[in-house]
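QA checklist item 7 of 12: single-chain prediction sanity check.
[x] sequence parsed
[x] length recorded as 242
[x] structure emitted
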Amino acid sequence: MKFAVIAAGEGSRLTGEGVETPKPLVEVCGEALIDRLLRIFSRCGATELVVICNDHSSRVAEHLRRLVVRGLDGSVVPLNLVVRSTPSSMHSFHELAPLLSGGLFCLTTVDTVFREEEFARYVDFLHKACADGVDGVMGVTRHIDDEKPLFVDVASDGSIAGFYDERGRCRHVSAGIYGLTPPALDTLRRCVERGESRMRNYQRALVGEGKHLLAYDFGTVFDIDHASDIAKAEAFIAEGRP
């Protein structure tokens, strides 16, 4: 199974708050965000790790290329790196699409912080659900940690009925964790051809095309958008350690 990370954003809010480190290299509990994701994905049996970073700064690309040579956490990193600036996360995803075809894959953004053991349970659930014919499993949370959350309507059987900008009757929001099967890439292509640019519109298109998506509740998930989020994420991770 392939795992992918979108790390192509500029991190302008962090920079504006005095954090000079590129977002993928911001450390949480002494570990860079990108390293943490790649380590967790490797432990979940990744056959390939696919990452896109922007070309505005060489620091992130150089860091990732060093990981390929030196390894991470004592293991080889099967990394496929794309260095390219894109206008949106959905366009970054589209750049990665040719590298994700052929099987089940999981995609996240680089600033998503979740508990490692919960992610392992999610991956097990994803494999079983897709083996039973589900088109994808989207990570959701009831913890709202976003200025413009995407609300998710989850039916009683765990199926996703829709994605909305307003809460309405929804009790969950998107956690930015996408486990998908190959047909989802066709939906992505059609979205780009229509001129769509937001990941939330892509998710709506999946439902609109009749894809069967399940929700997986991660409990709590943090996004590192502001300097203050770093300390919050560190406390969250430390709280979950034995």
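[x] summary fact logged: The mean pLDDT is 94.
[ ] second reviewer sign-off
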